[in-house]
Design a protein that fits this description.
244 residues, mainly alpha, two-stranded antiparallel sheet, 2% strand
C-alpha cells in the first residue's frame, strides 16, 4: 500500500514517467531538445560508428565486428526482407532503407531497458516510445513505398488504385492512408505499453518480478523491429511487383 501511495504521489508531483510529457532539456537553434531526441541522436551516432568501424578495413576473413555485422545483414536480407519483398535481388536493392529501419528500431527499443531509461532519468527515454518518432518512421516508409512504385512502373503505378474495379478507388486510397497510421501506432503502442508496465512494476516491486518483464521486452523489442521492417518490405514489394 505504501509503495502504491509513493507511486501515486510521484505521479502527482510531476516526476518523470512513461505517461509524462517529455520536458525540454535545452534549446538548440530555438528548438526544444528532449530526452527522446538525445537518445535518438545517440542511436544514430552509434549506427554511423558501427558502420564506419565494420567497413573501414574489410577483409576476406572477417574480424569479430565485421563478422557480426555480416551475419546481421544476411539475417535481415534472407529472413526479413527477401521473403516479403519478393526476391533477394530486390531485397539487396532496398536494403539501405529497410536495414536502417531494422537497426534503428531495435536499438531504440533496447534503449528502454537501460537503467537510466527504466528510471526515466533525463536523456534516456527510448525514441520509439514517442508517437512523433514512430509516425516519422511510418511516413518515411509510406513515401518510400510510392516512390519505389513510381520509379519501377512510372505513372502506370497509379493504375493499381483502380484495381480490381474502378469504383473501389476511394477504398484503395483509404487503405493506403491507413498503412502508415497502423505502422506508427503498432510500434508506439507496444514500446510505450511495455515501458509503462516495467516502470509500474519497478515502482511497486523493485526486486525480481520485473526481471521476466525485461526478458519479454527483449523479445518484443526484436519482434517490433521485425514486424515494421517486414510490413514495409511487403508494401514495397507490392508496389514494385510486375503486373500479370
Amino acid at each position: 500500500m505504501e509503495a502504491m501511495n509513493g507511486f501515486l504521489l510521484a505521479a502527482e508531483a510531476g516526476h518523470t514517467g512513461p505517461v509524462a510529457k517529455a520536458q525540454p532539456l535545452f534549446q538548440l537553434f530555438g528548438l526544444d531538445v528532449t530526452s527522446p531526441v538525445i537518445t535518438e541522436w545517440f542511436v544514430m551516432a552509434l549506427l554511423v560508428l558501427l558502420a564506419a568501424l565494420a567497413t573501414r578495413r574489410l577483409q576476406r576473413i572477417p574480424g569479430r565486428l565485421q563478422a557480426a555485422i555480416e551475419v546481421s545483414v544476411n539475417f535481415i536480407v534472407d529472413s526479413v526482407v527477401a521473403p516479403s519483398i519478393g526476391s533477394r535481388e530486390k531485397a539487396i536493392r532496398y536494403l539501405p532503407l529497410l536495414g536502417t529501419f531494422f537497426f534503428f528500431i531495435i536499438i531504440s527499443n533496447y534503449m528502454g531497458l537501460l537503467p537510466g531509461a527504466v528510471l526515466h532519468l533525463p536523456g534516456f527515454k527510448p525514441p520509439t516510445s514517442e508517437l512523433s518518432v514512430t509516425a516519422a518512421l511510418a511516413l518515411i516508409a509510406f513515401f518510400a513505398t510510392h516512390y519505389a512504385g513510381i520509379r519501377e512502373k512510372g505513372l502506370h503505378y497509379f493504375a493499381h488504385f483502380l484495381q480490381p474495379f474502378p469504383w473501389l478507388l476511394p477504398l484503395n486510397i483509404v487503405e493506403e492512408l491507413v498503412r502508415p497510421l497502423s505502422l506508427a501506432l503498432r510500434l508506439f503502442g507496444n514500446i510505450f505499453g511495455g515501458e509503462t508496465v516495467l516502470w509500474v512494476l519497478l515502482s511497486l516491486v523493485p526486486w525480481f518480478i520485473p526481471i521476466p518483464i525485461m526478458g519479454l521486452e527483449v523479445f518484443f523489442g526484436f519482434l517490433q523491429a521485425f514486424i515494421f521492417t517486414t510490413l514495409t518490405s511487403v508494401y514495397i514489394g507490392a508496389a514494385t511487383a510486375e503486373s500479370h
